[in-house]
């Protein structure tokens, strides 16, 4: 109930009135059943704009730090993330990664939409980077299609590090679902997982025409960090 209240009463109408977001390809979202929405990731605001532009509920996996803050600010942040359909996960790796996978599978198993950023983190410079193979494993284990989604100009609306958004019109482009059922039962093959992930990233690149670089975004971010 809180999700729909935020979407249609509290946040949604205000955001739509100010930023006038547009969407292309909404019919490509399956009317029912589980599916993964694989999106590029340009801005913090992506996880807010995408759910506003489609009719079905979308759950995102968000780092658990957003849900553990203290005081009024921590409470407000926690309520905001819960209200926008985000689920807390531990991104520290190892068993935490497995727990994240299981959380995503529970969402998909319940017949819901799961939003995933294959790059694993926001693009530091607007380019599209190499995808992480967790999305492929999840698609095969849950037996669901993957719908490519491109966010447009959200990095101009809310650049990394900026707290208040610029009044810029942003958009969402939704591509046709990708079916990977031909690889059923092969989720343990890392070469298959890489092939599927690369196919998803190619679909995103063609849909959004972003410049692509075949390295992980996290690697680029590490390079950009000031040296001690």
UniProtKB/TrEMBL annotation:
Region forming the signal peptide: none
Domain Phospholipid/glycerol acyltransferase, residue spans? 35-154
Return any one Pfam family short name: Acyltransferase
- Establish whether keyword Acyltransferase is in the entry: yes
Q: Does the keyword Protease apply?
A: no
Keywords attached to this entry: Acyltransferase, Transferase
Q: Single GO molecular-function term?
A: acyltransferase activity
List the CDD domains hit by this protein, alphabetically: LPLAT_AGPAT-like
Alphabetical list of InterPro entries matching this protein: Plipid/glycerol_acylTrfase
What the entry lists under PANTHER family is as follows:
1-ACYL-SN-GLYCEROL-3-PHOSPHATE ACYLTRANSFERASE
- Protein's name according to its UniProt entry: Lysophospholipid acyltransferase family protein
Organism this protein belongs to:
Microbacterium insulae
């Amino acid at each position: 109930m809180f999700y729909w209240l935020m979407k249609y009463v509290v946040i949604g109408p205000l955001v739509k009135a100010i930023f006038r977001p547009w969407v292309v390809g909404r019919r490509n979202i399956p009317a029912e059943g589980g599916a993964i929405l694989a999106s590029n990731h340009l801005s913090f605001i992506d996880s807010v704009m995408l759910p506003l532009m489609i009719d079905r509920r979308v759950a995102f996996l968000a780092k658990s730090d957003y849900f553990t803050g203290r005081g009024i600010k921590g409470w407000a942040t926690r309520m905001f993330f819960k209200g926008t359909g985000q689920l807390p996960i531990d991104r520290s790796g190892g068993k935490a990664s497995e727990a994240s996978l299981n959380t995503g599978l529970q969402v998909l198993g319940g017949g819901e939409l799961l939003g995933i950023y294959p790059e694993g983190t926001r693009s530091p410079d607007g380019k599209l980077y190499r995808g992480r193979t967790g999305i492929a494993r999840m698609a095969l284990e849950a037996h669901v299609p993957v719908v490519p989604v491109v966010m447009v100009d959200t990095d101009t609306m809310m650049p990394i590090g900026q707290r208040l958004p610029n009044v810029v019109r942003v958009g969402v482009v939704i591509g046709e679902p990708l079916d990977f059922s031909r690889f059923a039962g092969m989720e343990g093959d890392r070469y298959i997982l890489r092939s599927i992930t690369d196919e998803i990233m190619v679909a995103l690149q063609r849909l959004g025409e972003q410049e692509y670089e075949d390295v992980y975004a996290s690697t680029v971010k590490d390079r950009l960090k000031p040296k001690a």
